[in-house]
Amino acid sequence: MNIKPLFDKVVIKMLEAEETTKSGIILAGTAKEKPQLAEIVAVGPGGIYDGKDIGAMVVKAGDKVLMSKYAGTEVKVDGVEYTILRQSDILAIVD
User: Fold this and answer.
1) Cβ–Cβ under 8 Å, residues 20 and 27
2) The dihedral of CA 41, 58, 38, 77: what is its sign?
3) Are 43 and 5 spatial neighbours (Cβ–Cβ below 8 Å)?
4) Is residue 89 helix, strand or coil?
5) What are 37-74's pLDDT values in tens digits?
6) How many CB atoms lie within 10 A of CB 10?
7) At 95, is the secondary structure helix, strand, or coil?
């Protein structure tokens, strides 16, 4: 199945959080924070939604981004977890 987002929506796949700290301490599953680094899988076309001009999309598939901590809606497709969120919930593109 393929996900094609609408308007200013973006489909992302979260990247795994570090399991050890810089000092070498291994973190338990409950001690890890929700990761904020993700890779963009698909991008909507932008355009006009509900009478408001959303404009062109700034991000593209393949970009690695930082997102707001609790943004978006989590979905599971073919056993893979994705998050769908608005472009405005993306804080930065990471090089």
Assistant:
1) yes
2) negative
3) yes
4) helix
5) 999 999 999 988 778 887 889 999 999 999 998 899 99
6) 27
7) coil
Q: How far apart are CA 38 and CA 23, in angstroms?
A: 24
Q: Is the dihedral of CA 67, 5, 14, 34 positive or negative?
A: positive
Count of CB atoms within 10 A of residue 26's CB? 8
Backbone angles phi, psi at 73, to 5 degrees: -120, 125
User: What pTM, to 2 d.p., does this model score?
Assistant: 0.79
DSSP state, residue 28: P
Which of these, 95, 65, 75, lies nearest to 5 by C-alpha position? 75
Q: Homologous superfamily of 9-16+28-94 in CATH?
A: GroES chaperonin (2.30.33.40)
**Out of 19-28, 52-61, 66-75, 82-91, which region has the weakest mean confidence (pLDDT)?**
19-28
Q: Pairing mode, if any, of strands 47-49 and 90-94?
A: unpaired
